[in-house]
């Protein structure tokens, strides 16, 4: 018999009668196709899903639940249980299980211009999922629909599968023939009177696409709707609250070209004026009116805005403010304007004249007033009287009393009005009368049905204590606290209900008797943990993230921690969890973890130009899951006009099983920075440890060995006293650092800050030239006061302090300023230079920058900046160490991977032999 969730027939004997008692299960055998090892984890996991026990009577319900659990695991495509001999007093059951073969890999061909990830997201199967041949057709339809949504007319998608002969699992190949797509030939706008076609087209992405040919700028329906939304927002912002935009599409016969028409019905322009408003500026009230952000159909927007203005006045103490609207129409169609005048009669402003509290004995006036937002005028409070605020204050005072056991407290208000000393003001004298009632205290706390915790442990966990004021709202909180504690003891089905009895004593006070009724439910142990989908990731990598242990009390908290830990494994795209047996209240629950691995291999290639390196190209090859150990191994190389750097490294995210990430690398580089008379060849190794301490704080410790060789490239001979710097040197550097980061974006930050502090402890092996401490401190701030404007500020301080007998620092260790990365307007490293025009380094560098970034739309950003900085403790004593400054402007184009910018900086203290400034080109922000 093959069962997929069915029951055995109701038991009957051969003569048609029913047995007096269920037969005893003498033996339970499991046979899993393709698995003969009795210690195999799948065999052990499957046994944990069978609730029947050898030596116990057969249970129809337990058998059915076992089948349900086996089926719910989605591990088996067939479950076969042959009929036993029901006429015997003892029966033997055999579960013959046929595992699903799984999807080992999904290969995608022809996805461009979509990313492979976008195609995978459109599918309902994933790597590691059970292979079901019948699902392939469904995936073809889903992928085709995704491409139709991207503008393709009739895409063809074919999915084929092939079993891997090594393990029998399947590799699925997705072949996509996208076919034709609609190309936007032209965009036309009709009905626009107030704004030109060009001005409107600049806000239409479909029009921008029409300027190009090819597959990427194709027509996409979703983008057309976004264009309509953008045009509507533009018009509303300009005062056309009733604007309507109606798009239509005309396909050119015999071609895949199309013309998009936008029919604009501008409606009347709204001109809003205010009069009588003294408390608030026109700009403030216009923002409350909100006509620029929404529709005004049937004047609903106007009515809503007037209510907002009235509410704002009321909150400021103008209780009788009135707003009268009058309107007129000017101009002739189609350039008509609706002139709306809002006349505001603010009326008198009401302030709090006095606050008197009566009837309070349990709490003094100061304690009660701390609960109130209604206050007398003071330095940081205008003292406006708002009835709604007073009502909230009364509720807060009532809550104060209830929290302290006064269950029947009543607070009433009495407000008397009088004229203020100044014209147009009135005062509200507030009297609050408190009828405290009697205080209720907890007489005793008891528990029923509690066995997993001692009475003392349970009492200690409660927030409500014996003898303390009774707070009814704490009962529910303590129920949850007890449930959580008992659940972690292996009782996940725990229920706790608190009941309260209140009586009065002879002195008139009240006592509360609290009983927590506990139903712990069955004790549950942790069973087997089984993983699927980890074709490359070793099981031990997954298992070390598990907080649960077999045969220990089952813990929901540890289960959630396990889920979080496994989902944080960098080698995985996702992880899905099933806790089997929990809802069935089985004695043992088993955890099934189905993971989806990332594509392990990656390649990053890039090339470009910037001012610091000029032409450059880089490549990085790596494996996210090296040897299946969740390690990231890579090799990278960069070549530019200033030299090269090659690096080989490996990152371990869980160093020695901790939450510390470690990175070991070996590198070699040869760099000759612009405007310097020396170059540096460096070979070495690095071992870095990083750890996130808090949400926004991370710490690092880096240890580096370097073999350095400084070589001369200038025309002038090397000074005799500097010859020792050009001898090969070996050194070790240890760098502890800490970073605080609250920015909202890594690529384009608009708010938040970054603070960084590091100390390089450098020690030379053969010489003392590298014996120094380098302090590095930097802070960056980002603030967006209004839309489209972001202010960025930066401050940086670096200083090198030799130690021991060392008094000289090698030139290749000195600090230089000037260029795209620090003081713009100066050539690279040329902030300070000697009489021969050669750059001069120092032991201290200080710089500060401020930049204003204006979003011009169309992904273009205009920037203005001011940089200032200085080098101190210079190697040339005759060179000035004063602060030097620059200011400049620039344009950046914002791409998905960051901005590309052209900037020009002017020297504000130009020297006679210097240029006026310098052009800079960069990819990404300089800070």
Properties at a glance:
8 domains, Ubiquitin-like (UB roll), alpha+beta, 927 residues, 16-stranded antiparallel β-sheet, 3-stranded mixed β-sheet
Give your account of this protein's structure.
- The protein has 927 residues and is an alpha+beta fold.
- It folds into 8 domains: 76 residues, membrane protein fhac (Ubiquitin-like (UB roll), Roll); 75 residues, Ubiquitin-like (UB roll) (Roll); 83 residues, Roll (Ubiquitin-like (UB roll)), CATH 3.10.20.310; 77 residues, Ubiquitin-like (UB roll); 87 residues, Ubiquitin-like (UB roll) (Roll), CATH 3.10.20; 80 residues, Roll (Ubiquitin-like (UB roll)); 73 residues, membrane protein fhac (Ubiquitin-like (UB roll)); 252 residues, membrane protein fhac: a member of the omp85/tpsb transporter family (Porin).
- The chain is built from 15 helices and 37 strands.
- The strands form 8 sheets. The protein has a 16-stranded antiparallel beta sheet, with no helix packed on it.
- A hairpin with a 5-residue loop joins β8 and β9.
- The longest helix has 17 residues.
- It is globular and about 105 Å long.
- The relative contact order is 0.05.
- Its main location: membrane.
- InterPro entries: Bac_surfAg_D15, BamA/TamA_POTRA, D15-like, OM_assembly_BamA.
- It is found in: Membrane.
- Keywords: Cell outer membrane, Membrane, Repeat, Signal, Transmembrane.
- This is Outer membrane protein assembly factor BamA.
